[in-house]
Amino acid sequence: MLNINSETVCFIIAKAREFQAKEEIVIPEVPLSPSENWAQQILADHIDDPCAQEVVETVQDLEPDQQAELVALMWLGRGDYLLSEWDSAVSDAVESLQDFTDPGTYLLAHPLVADFLLDGLDQHGLSCEA
Asked: Three-state SS for 5?
């Protein structure tokens, strides 16, 4: 059973999707002209991106056990654990959090984090649909 609010997970999923969509933009090394390059540069912002900042801040505001559940939820959705191994996944996430300087950044470093979290929620019988 999840102790993290599914609405919080859904917010993180939405913001991660916004951020990852921007990250797929590739800026040419030599722009054709400054006027053609400005929009691509805006979309390629990284850690200063408001969506990334919202994810990081939201995760930082969670209690440590909720942060661990969020990481475990990603691992569950990624297929690293089965739902029957949930307690083990959370326990491993608690240990792993000691190595992460920032769990939010760790999550965003995975290009499919939104899909993994959504799948993890689904395995718990939850969704982001109203």
From this structure: coil
